[in-house]
Structures are given as structure tokens and as C-alpha cells.
Amino acid sequence: MTGDPRTPGREPFSSPPAEALAAAPDALRRESPAAHGSRLVRTPSGVRSPEEFCRRMTRASDSNFYYSFLLLPRSRRQAIYAVYAYCRAVDDVVDSPESDDPAADLLFWRRELDRCFSGYARHPITYQLARFKDRFGLRKEHFLEILHGVEMDLERDRYETFEDLYRYCYRVAGVVGLVCAQVFGHRDPATRDYAVSMGIGFQLVNILRDLKADTERGRIYLPLEDLWRFGCTEKDLLGGNPGAGFDALMRFECERARETLHHARRKLPAVDRRSMWPAEAMGGVYQRLLETISARPRRVLEGRISIPRWRKAALALVARLGRMQTP
């Protein structure tokens, strides 16, 4: 798939946007802003359309991806906002203390996916996804796989080995990479391997960056075999006071994530270097996160590490210009 489609897609719904917005679950329709640092993103006030709903939800999350999305052509940008909003919404189901019954909330999304891919979406996010599913070849099974990954957080909070963790990362991030590659417009099927590996690499970095928040929820995503190898205990990690082996453990995990990202970039076919520039921009942000964590591993025990917005924007612009200069 090349270029950006110029003709608008056929609107598959009879329901107006206002009705789609009215069907949003309460957790997504609250008008009060989310607390700083909360992973629950509520609907901003004044939203009038599904398109605006997804855009505002993406922007409110202060995602590392947002500035790359801004430079996409309009239809691709609208589609990727919907993809991101979906991922954020289902992730918030298991991370938010305001969800009384996460399993029931995830069931809502499973049923909403059925409606989305049969032409009767009721939620503003799936309304937007349905607008672009045919244009960009979005597949229902990918969104279900993401949902299965989120459900794993309801079933387990430890991973014995990296192989165990890999399955989780594939579902919640590798598959997201596949969906993004569809929206970005890849042509070579080999680019799917690149997209999966990049997604998994991003997730490995997220696990390191979010270590404090996750342990506060009682979750440890670092493989237990790695903790044992470096002499760290679950108790000390959960208590925020790991032993002397913690720095070496974190640098080991940083190197694994770094190699995953490097391996992904070696897989990117030349024909798709132009279309995948947003992923490369994201890779630049995550590379800097890794450098920050590796230089001072215990920084993750103090709170979430972030890259300044101006740097994210600059990395996105550099990647975009690099795309334009590619022969």
C-alpha cells in the first residue's frame, strides 16, 4: 500500500456521531481531567465527534507516539489515533482502580469489536476504527489479540522466564506494531517482522520505565529468572529497595531491549523505509529512554522517566525529513 488515499471512505453507519459518543462507557465519558500520572484517560469536555474523541484521548495521554502521529497525512493520522485510543482504553480497564469489574468491561470491548467489524459500532473509538478498517486492511483478530494480552494482567502478575514474558509483549505490543504498519502503509510483507520486533522492543522499555508504578500494583514484569540471576528478591523489588544487584539487572534488561530494537531495524526492507518513518521516530525516543535508564538505573524507582516534549517533536521532525530525503 503506497501513498495516502485521497477519497474519503464510505460511512458505514446510520448512527450520527452524537449517538456514538452517548454510548461510551462511564469511565471514558467523565469530564473531569485525569489525575497527573494516572493511566486512566477520561473524555475531555467539549468533544463533539468520534474523530475528536480519539485525537483528544491520544493527546491527553502524553504518549511518546503523539508527535510522530501529528506529521502523518490526515486519514492515516485519524486511523492511528483510533488505534491508539483503543489500546489505551482496554489497557485502562485493568490499570484503573475505578473499574469495578474489569472482566465485564473487557467483555464490552470484545462485543464492541464484533459490532465494529460487522458495521454497527456504538462507541466513538470503534466507530472510527470501522471507518478505516477496509481502507487500511485492519483485521479484527489483531484487536482481539491485543485484548487477550490485556486480559493476561487479570490472570497473572509474574513471569518466570523471558519466553513467558515474550508472549505477553507480543500480544500487547507486537500486534500493535502490525496494526500500525498497516496504517503507515507498508508494501513488503517482511516489514511485519520489523513491526512486531519494534513493538516488543518498545514494550520491554515500557516495563523498565514503569517499574515503580507496576510494583505499586503488585506486578513484576521482569522475568523472575533474571531477578534470581542478579540476586534481587521480589520482596525487595516490591518494597522499592532492591539490593546491590539491581543496577546490573537493569543494565542487562536495557541491553536486551536495545538489541531487540537493533534487530528490528536490521529487518526493515529498503522499500518501506519511507512509509515506516513514524516507527523510526518512536525508536529514537525509546533509544533515549534506554540511555537514561542505563546511565542511572535506580532512577526508575523514583518515578516514571520521560523525554521532554520538544525532544519528541524534534525526533519526529528529523525522522520525517529523513524520509523525504530517502532516494
Protein model, in words:
This protein has 2 domains: 16-154, Farnesyl Diphosphate Synthase; 156-327, Farnesyl Diphosphate Synthase, CATH 1.10.600. 63% of the residues lie in helices and 0% in strands. Helix 3 packs across helix 5. It is globular and about 55 Å long. It has 327 residues and is mainly α. It has 16 helices and no strands. The chain has helices at 17-22, 26-29, 50-60, 66-70, 74-95, 102-116, 124-132, 140-155, 162-184, 191-209, 211-216, 224-229, 234-238, 246-267, 277-295, 309-325.
Set down the secondary structure blueprint.
Layout: H1 17-22, H2 26-29, H3 50-60, H4 66-70, H5 74-95, H6 102-116, H7 124-132, H8 140-155, H9 162-184, H10 191-209, H11 211-216, H12 224-229, H13 234-238, H14 246-267, H15 277-295, H16 309-325
Count of the separate structural domains: 2
Shape: globular
Helix-strand topology string: HHHHHHHHHHHHHHHH
Query: What is the CATH domain class of the largest domain?
Result: Mainly Alpha
- Note the gap between the termini: 18 Å
Number of helices: 16
Q: Radius of gyration over alpha carbons? A: 19 Å
- In total, how many beta strands? 0
Largest sheet: none
What would you call the structural class?
mainly alpha
| CATH topology name of the largest domain | Farnesyl Diphosphate Synthase
Q: Flag low-confidence runs.
A: 1-17, 25-43, 323-327
CATH superfamily of the largest domain: Farnesyl Diphosphate Synthase
Mean pLDDT, all residues: 84
